Amino acid sequence: TQGYSSAASDVYKRQNIIFQFLRIRNGLEQMLKRQYKLFKSVDDKIALTVLYNRENYKILTTFMMTEVHDFYPDVREALENVISGNMEEYAFDGNLLGIEVGKEITEVYFQFEEELLGEPCFISTDELYKLVIEWKEMEERMKRGEDIFPVTIED
User: Fold this and answer.
1) How far apart are the first and last CA of the chain?
2) Number of DSSP helices (H) and strands (E) in the chain, helices first
3) pLDDT in tens, 1-37
C-alpha cells in the first residue's frame, strides 16, 4: 500500500506541475501583486520581506529572504545561463531552498522534507528572473535608507 500511495502522490504532483505550467504558459495567472515591507529581525536589525498575492508563491518570500539575499550573484547567474541559452537547464541549491531552472519554467523547492515545509512553486523563468532583480533593487533602496516602504507593485 505504501508503494501505491507514493506512486499516486507522484502522479498527483506531475498533474499539478502540468496544470501550473499550462496556466503560466497560457497567461491565465492573475496579475502579480507584491508588497515589500521592512521588519525587525531576531538580531534587532531592519530586514526586508516581500509578500505575494498568489497562494503558491509563498515559498518565494523565503527564497528571496534566504537564497537571493545570501547568494544573489549565483541565483542570477543560474537564471541568466538558461534564459540566454548557454545552458538547457541549471540546478542551484542554497541553504534552505533550491531551484531547477528550465527554459520556460523554474521550480523553487525546499531541500529537506519538502512536504513538511511547503509545496514547491512553479514559476515562469522570465518572471522569476524579473522578481530576483527587483528584490535586489529593493534591498539596495533599503540599504540607502530610501523612505519608500511599504511599497506595493502590481503587473
Assistant:
1) 46
2) 5, 7
3) 444 444 444 444 454 555 555 554 555 556 899 999 9
Helix (H) or strand (E) holding 35: strand 33-40
What are the cell numbers at 83? 534564459
**At residue 131, what is the residue type?**
L
Q: Which of 105, 109, 106, 123 is nearest to 29 (CA)?
A: 123
Distance CA 35, CA 57 (A): 13
* 92, amino acid identity: F
Provide the sign of the torsion angle of the four alpha carbons 20, 131, 117, 55, taken in this order: negative
Angle at the Cα of 77 (from 125 to 123), degrees rounded to 5?
15
Residue pLDDT, tens place only, 98-112:
999 999 999 999 988
| 99 touches 147 (CB < 8 A) | no
Residues 6+ apart with CB under 8 A from 141: 148
Between CA 104 and CA 108, with CA 105 as vertex, the angle to 5 degrees is 155
